[in-house]
Amino acid sequence: MRRRRYPSDTTDAELSVIEPLFPPPACTRPAGGGPEKHPRREIIDALRYVVSEGCRLRALPADFPPHQTVYGFFRRWIKSGAWHRIRDRSRREVRCQMGTSPNAVATVLDSQSVEASDTVGKHRTPHPRPPPAARTPNSPSSGRTPPTGARSPSGPGPS
């Protein structure tokens, strides 16, 4: 067991919340499997280190389990849905602490596809829009520049 030394290391309180959300070790299932060589806490700490430091998995310090082992657990936990369970539980707890509904609710309204009420906009007149500017062959919006000595729309050209 390695010593806690990084800011990203899991606390006992954090571990007690997320550990039940991971699948049971293979050695405890009927299909069987060998005991895990590295404690799960070290695997979790290694994954948190990679995320917090923004480094590659191969760049893990030597006091973590081998990067292949960490990646193997990560893949298995993704396939089992453990990360989704952790995310969902964390989101529910944060939303409850904020005093909002634990279940996320999102509504998207598109003004072009929703009809307005009969009372909306009846008492106002829309602001008139100015007519679009006339485009001249040598205006800046046409992408061309006038030849030297040509007259510009604002007055005579250079003398």
Automatic annotation (TrEMBL):
- Biased composition, Polar residues: where in the chain? 98-116
Record InterPro entries: IS402-like_dom
Q: Which Pfam families match?
A: DUF4096
Task: Give me the ranges of the annotated region Disordered.
Answer: 95-159
| Insertion element IS402-like domain location | 11-86
Secretion signal span: none
Q: What is this protein called?
A: Transposase
